[in-house]
Amino acid sequence: MVYMLDPGNSNGGCFLFDDADEMIRGFSQPRGANLPIPASYFPRSMTVVKATHPMPDIFHKSRWLIVYSERARALLDTLAPGQVEFLPVVIQAKTPKLAERLKLDTAYYFSNVLGRAQRVQWLETPVTALPPTGDGIERFYAQSNYRKWAIRPRLPEEPVIWTESWWRVDNREYRKNVTVFLEDELWQALDSRFRGQLHPCRVGTELI
Predict the structure, then answer these.
(1) Residues 167, 171, 175, CA angle at the centre, nearest 5°?
(2) If residue 193 lies in a helix (H) or strand (E), which one and from where to where?
(3) CB 204 within 8 A of CB 149
(4) Cα dihedral sign for 37, 39, 50, 55?
(5) I need a surface site. Which of 7, 133, 154, 181 has the fewest CB within 10 A?
(6) How far apart are the first and last CA of the chain?
(7) Predicted structure pTM score
């Protein structure tokens, strides 16, 4: 089984970062090309200005920019060594009272998924065409209902956490380069350790 990585907590929910804490402009270019984001694009520190609960261990800074606590990093690095780059970020509270409420871990990290695989079975997955670019290549992306995506089983040499490599056949190219996928065993381990912090987004069909 395969899951999408989708933390249930995000900036603006049970916590809020200062608006000045932003990714450096330009990070969308490597991400759009399905490349790891250079470390220089990540902020070195972020300030929490509001919070109603302790800081979660896995959360969205913004959509698809996922932060891990030291506790979560240690678990993921053990179960998927070398497949994710962890970039340190200092998280601080605006006031001592807020810091007491947040109960911050010893360290936090932006995650930069390095693993790549091509496991989406595009001919069995509903797709939508992208606008033409004039180069003669027809491009497609998976429709949003992840329960209808088809995934082949993992090969022994493939990563357990990854983003999809693009697939080209003749003049047709298929892309799914934002979603982070996890093998069932890894998702279950994270969910068990950090109960309730991940949405159970199981991808719909695994082909044999």
Answers:
(1) 30
(2) helix 184-193
(3) yes
(4) positive
(5) 133
(6) 11
(7) 0.89
What's at 110, amino acid-wise? F
Q: Can you read off the two tokens belonging to residue 74?
A: 């240690």
Residue 184 CA to residue 196 CA, distance in Å, equals 16
Closest CA to 122 of 172, 182, 158: 172
Type of residue found at 142:
A
| CA–CA gap between residue 37 and residue 197 (Å, rounded) | 24
Q: Which two tokens stand for residue 67?
A: 């932060």
Place of tokens 């350790």: 193
Q: What is the Cα–Cα distance from 174 to 167, expressed in whole angstroms?
A: 5
Q: What is the pLDDT of residues 104-127, one digit of tens each?
A: 999 999 999 999 999 999 999 999
Residue 57's nearest CA partner among 21, 91, 99 is: 91
